[in-house]
Write a structure and sequence with these properties.
β7 and β8 (336-339) form a beta hairpin. The strands form four sheets. This protein has a three-stranded antiparallel β-sheet. The chain has a two-stranded antiparallel sheet with strand order 2-5. A two-stranded antiparallel sheet has the order 3-4. The chain contains 13 helices and nine strands. The radius of gyration is 21 Å and the shape is globular. It is mainly α and 352 residues long. 50% of the residues lie in helices and 11% in strands. The termini are far apart.
């Protein structure tokens, strides 16, 4: 809905982001997943270190630690994704880590602000919001020499990264603790092989994540599109040029036409063998969270694997519950349902 030029400081990646471009999908869906097994031991250690720093070091005399779960999830998921994207060396550079964490937030703020800004002012507003594209410039300056060196090695050789979803899943576990024991049994088995299958060995957790996302979509609508020219659908529906359309995903995923007892949380609704069996990453008209068709989110497989490793480690190491079960946990912004950063969850290390 806004020009990439305003976010990328004059760089328009048409070769990557044009409607038929496939490079980004190849990178995220292909190369990311190919290298995940090699990175998994490092990622698991990062998860352990993050929990030790963010939770275990803050336990009080009663064994509990009140943790702002939004900030914790942002840090854990962000650090793991940055590790995957930048590599171990750059991921240990505090400036690069800060810039890589800031850039996605810049994209959200710029995208939202430019909905209300006249086109002639868009570039200036984007520059103001991003502090003259500070995060992007830091990333480019840090990545350029590394990429040049990697290209040199490649030429001379013979051989030619879900933060809100994690927050909502933790909230769902606090609201429905009856699922913890079966999920722990499953996670214990997966942990015994260091999550060698990348989470595929945890179908119960897979279903739980899908159900959590079904009832807690981050946005009420998805797949926003703008008609660049007049368009008529096969059923006769006509869109004038400039029309904006989207899918009301929150309403669809609570529609009794698609789901039995749609307002009831059923964590194992999608487990294999049931009439409604689906994987967390499956795309479907009744579950448009990932998008549909060729433009469906290519990073969903990586996101699924990462979420399962983080949640699997979390439920094995800690008991947890809301610090205040009656406190509001989200707020509405336009069509988005945003987790409150003030929400705290009490964590306590489990007894061996």
């Amino acid at each position: 809905m806004f020009r990439y030029t305003h976010l990328f400081h004059g760089f328009t990646p048409d070769h990557v982001l044009r409607p038929k471009g496939r490079i980004s999908q190849r990178v995220v869906r292909g190369l990311f997943m190919q290298h995940l097994p090699a990175l998994r031991p490092v990622m698991l250690q990062k998860i352990n270190d993050a929990f030790e720093s963010d939770i275990s070091s803050k336990l009080d005399g009663q064994g509990w630690a009140p943790i702002p779960v939004v900030a914790m999830c942002r840090r854990v998921v962000g650090d793991l994704t940055i590790l995957h994207v930048l590599g171990d060396t750059l991921a240990n550079d505090p400036k690069m880590m800060a810039a890589a964490a800031q850039f996605p937030e810049d994209a959200i703020y710029v995208g939202e602000a430019l909905r209300y800004v006249p086109s002639p002012l868009a570039g200036g507003v984007a520059s103001l919001i991003t502090k003259r594209h500070r995060a992007l410039r830091t990333l480019v300056n840090g990545l350029y020499p590394v990429l040049v060196e990697r290209l040199k090695r490649h030429i001379n050789s013979e051989e030619a990264e879900d933060k809100p979803a994690l927050v909502m899943a933790i909230h769902s576990l606090c609201l429905h603790p009856e699922y913890l024991e079966p999920l722990r049994e499953e996670a214990q088995s997966a942990a015994s092989t260091n999550f060698a299958q990348g989470g595929d060995e945890m179908p119960l957790l897979d279903s739980f994540l899908r159900e959590s996302a079904r009832l807690n979509p981050i946005d009420g609508v998805s797949m926003r599109r703008k008609a660049l020219q007049p368009y008529t659908f096969a059923d006769g529906t006509h869109l004038p040029q400039g029309s904006i359309v989207s899918i009301p995903q929150r309403a669809i995923m609570r529609d009794p036409m698609y789901y039995d007892n749609p307002e009831t949380f059923d964590g194992f609704r999608f487990v294999s063998g049931s009439a409604t069996a689906k994987k967390y990453t499956d795309i479907d008209v009744s579950y448009p969270t990932w998008g549909l068709g060729r433009r469906a989110c290519p990073g969903r497989y990586y996101a699924s694997s990462l979420l399962k490793m983080v949640l699997g480690k979390l439920i094995l190491r800690y008991d947890f519950e809301f610090a205040d079960a009656k406190a509001p946990r989200t707020f509405q912004w336009r069509s988005a349902l945003v987790p409150r950063s003030s929400t705290k969850v009490l964590f306590r290390r489990r007894q061996a």
